[in-house]
Amino acid sequence: MSVSVTKIASNKTFGGILSKYTFKADSLGGLDAKFNVFLPSASESSKFPILYYLAGLECTEDTAPWKGGFLRDAAQEGIALVFPDTSPRGAGAEGEDDSWDFGTGAGFYINATNPIYSKHYNMYDYVVKELPKALQSLDLPLDFTRESIFGHSMGGHGAISLYLPPWGQKAFTGYLTGGIDEGKAYDSTELIASAKGKNLNILIDYVRRPLRSVTRINSTKAGQLLPENFSAAARSAGFTESQVDVREQPGYDHSYYFISTFVPEHIKFHSKFLKA
């Protein structure tokens, strides 16, 4: 089935072009879905590897391009960036606008099975299946054989799918009929334990402060999602530090000041594998 995607904005930046698109996403119940794509400056023969960025709670597809400092480094590395939104918008589902950490702006990149949310809140299918099809329909110079993903906060939770109480409990008990047990399918600590023997390349930065921690690839609140548990599970599964590197960065907070500080290193990290 063809996808009809409309360009609604375009800006030149760092020699490349940042464009905003929209289309009606089946996985989101037919609602309009907006996303941004950054393409570096290129010759006619260039095709760029793709790096997807999943943003955090309360963010949109615009937050990272505006605040994160991503575009300069992606332009230098010759990498395309894709910025999806964080949830469906305007679903009208019960309670979706009652709190900042559930519903609108807080899709958690999972597929809801609770009937209240299952028509629209399927951000996993949207990011993994439908968004790539929308990108392919645009005939942009993108190399779909070279893709990677990273994120911040809830987006890190989406990229490495941590589920640990109490943050994961609220999302999983709300979106999933099977609650916490069903949520284990999205739990990166569970998943990495079962990934023994695979070739993994993961870089995580986090900050430990009272109730706050930030990571790239994954970002969590320190007292809630416990990145050290993920690290311990990785070591137990036999992964070395060069394969799964979890680094504390003292003194920073959960903001985009932290992101803009460390994003150059992370884009270079992904570039190393995307260009291999």
UniProtKB/TrEMBL annotation:
Xref: SUPFAM superfamilies: alpha/beta-Hydrolases
InterPro entries (UniProt xref): AB_hydrolase_fold (IPR029058), Esterase-like (IPR000801), S-formylglutathione_hydrol (IPR014186)
EC number(s) on file: 3.1.2.12
Pfam family for this entry, one: Esterase
Keyword Hydrolase carried by entry: yes
Taxonomy, superkingdom: Eukaryota
Keywords: Hydrolase, Serine esterase
Lineage summary: Eukaryota, Fungi, Dikarya, Basidiomycota, Agaricomycotina
GO biological process: one example: formaldehyde catabolic process
Protein name: S-formylglutathione hydrolase
A molecular function GO annotation: carboxylic ester hydrolase activity
Source organism: Hydnum rufescens UP504
One cellular component (GO) term of this entry: cytosol
Entry keyword Hydrolase: yes
Gene3D superfamilies reported for this sequence: alpha/beta hydrolase
Family: Belongs to the esterase D family.
